[in-house]
Amino acid sequence: MSVNIKRYKNSLRQTPAGGFTGLVKIAWRNLWRNKRRTLITVSSIFFGVIFSALMGSMQEGSYQKMIENVVRFYAGHAQIQHHDYPDHQTINNSFVPGDSLLKKLQEYPELEMVVPRLESFALASSGNKTEGVMVFGVDPEKENRMTRLSDKVVSGNYFQHQGAMMGVDLADNLGLSVGDTLVMISQGYHGVSAFGQYPVVGIIKHPNPELNRRLVYLPIDEAQYFFQTFGNITSLALVGISQKAIDKVLPALKKNLDEELTLRTWQDMFPAVLQQIESDRATALIMKLILYLVIGFGILGTVVMMMAERRAEFSVMVAVGMYRYKLAFMLLMEILWIGLLGVLAGFLGTLPVISWFVHHPVPITGQAGEWMENIGFEPFMFFAWDVGVFLQQMAVVFVLTTLVSFYPFVRAFKVSPVIGEKN
Amino acid sequence: MAIITLNSISRTYNSKQVPVHALNCIDLSFDEGEFTAIVGPSGSGKTTLLNIVGGLDDPDEGDVVIDETKINALSGNEKIKFRLHHIGFIFQAYNLIPVLTARENVEFILELQGVPKSERKKRSAELLEAVGIPEKADIRPRQLSGGQQQRVAVARALASRPRFVLADEPTANLDSASAENLLAIMQELNQKENTTFIFSTHDERVVKMARRVVTLQDGKIKTDETS
């Protein structure tokens, strides 16, 4: 008898295993046996992809806006500063942006703008009122290109080569308006006395209330004269055509700088923004995990029901000669078909929805909106058009579906060929 | 010559709680080309016997030898392969694959065997012709009557030219006319292709047509009569 079993086993090895193409076809057709159930499952994946992509897009949109606020409206992607300036931010740690440095910077097509600034502090007064102020010496034209400062002028005009602009709250506190004279005293370069008086040509309303209370803009020549720095600046803000572009040239830029200078990225200068983004990402991840769990268990519920309903069918398939691994393959295909349909539909659905939100940010009204304005943010929910985000969500939901498919896959290996017998 | 031999087969369900002795030391053999009905009251062990002969279930004791192969010694996958190549099954509830047409249901077994497409088509057409429903080849089971579905099931069971066909109450869900037609078809195939048919049944019409009738009672053979 053992000889016969051996002979039979050998014959099994010689028989080709067929039927996989047919199984893919059966799996596809099985989807449409219970159209309503399939559509509900596909819909749950569809909405899962849309919601998670929408969430991701909103998240990335708010980060991009936050970074843009920092980069485009204040710091630039990076700044060249005197080596000692980061630790001791005094006017004594300023530097002369030499022609060779400016020429070198012009060689990088990745750099869109190079904007010089001279920043220090002073006492501003009018009549018997005095306020401590931040003095920003800027190139009016370049600064406006970078920060669109002229948009913030609420009274008077954007300055050209003379005069001062000041924050709206500072003007109120000092009782100044356009045409009045602002008087400032300070300590200039290497301790010289700084004194100056400037006609107020414009009053600006900055989104950041602290800046509204403290900010005075002077044309950079005036500021250099005021602080007696004569050509020195405290920073050279660099704005790249994109974050990616600037990241590419940063190493070369760093390498080519003189020893007395240093290059600091916005991440170096504003680590709190980066930390906030990271912590927000972690919170959003928890929300997404909850969403994924809901989607995952939704699919699993359908799959468990489907397995229970079709137990007899699976038993017959195994009874008539279908290997359990082929049955497992067929079930895997069914779930993957569902996953693929849901994910693709979700992707196609995501594009117009997110496109709409990218072009129509959601306004935040009421106290929340006011609060956002007060901390310097535009009161809108911004969405990012980031294909990476969509693809990531599609991939996660598809992986989730694949994980769920392990259930029928494993159960298939336990199917009894006896109809009605529990596996 | 016996192609199936059952030696001292016993099968007990629920052995740890309230044991039910479905089969109790059965010795039985079936010759090639037989047309046998296994009869007996509900719970007498008919389906269990067919399941064990078909390698769907294993006996607790005894051996099932088919064509000199002890099938209860085969592994799970070997049994599946054995069934695919040697045994045809017909079930009471037809159990066709609902998403496949009649032709595809017949071809399904052949596809699992890796038979080329042209050969599959030829064989399925032959069989659907033989069971009298060639015009229903491209119709799915839910659009067929019970009798037509059972004919497709017969064609499927014979697709791989098995040595024998096991049919569990094949006429139970059919009206008289359909049942008689089906039995006539199976008898013709039995005679033409010398395929062994073993039925479990309550149906008197099947019993009348069978050349051998094995009666089970309480898991034991009560009578074994050949006409």
Give me the side-by-side strand order of the main sheet of chain A.
Answer: 2-3-8-5-7-6
Q: Any idea what the CATH architecture of chain B is?
A: 3-Layer(aba) Sandwich
H/E order of the elements of chain A?
Answer: HHHEHEEHEEHEEHEHEHEHHHHEHEHH
Assembly context of the chains: heterodimer
Number of helices of chain B: 7
CATH domain fold name of chain B: Rossmann fold
User: What profile does the largest beta sheet of chain B have?
Assistant: 6 strands, mixed
Relative helix content of chain B: 25-40%
Number of strands of chain B: 10
Tell me the Rg of chain A in angstroms: 33 Å
- The chain-level mean pLDDT of chain A equals 87
How many structural domains are formed by the residues of chain A?
A: 2
> Approximately what portion of the residues of chain A adopt beta-strand conformation?
15-25%
Estimate what percentage of residues of chain B fall within beta strands. 25-35%
Per CATH, the class of chain B reads Alpha Beta
**Strand pairing plus helix content of chain A: what structural class?**
alpha+beta
Shape of chain B: globular
Proportion in helices of chain A: 55-70%
Shape of chain A: elongated
Main interface by residue count: A-B, 32 and 37 residues
The radius of gyration of chain B is: 17 Å
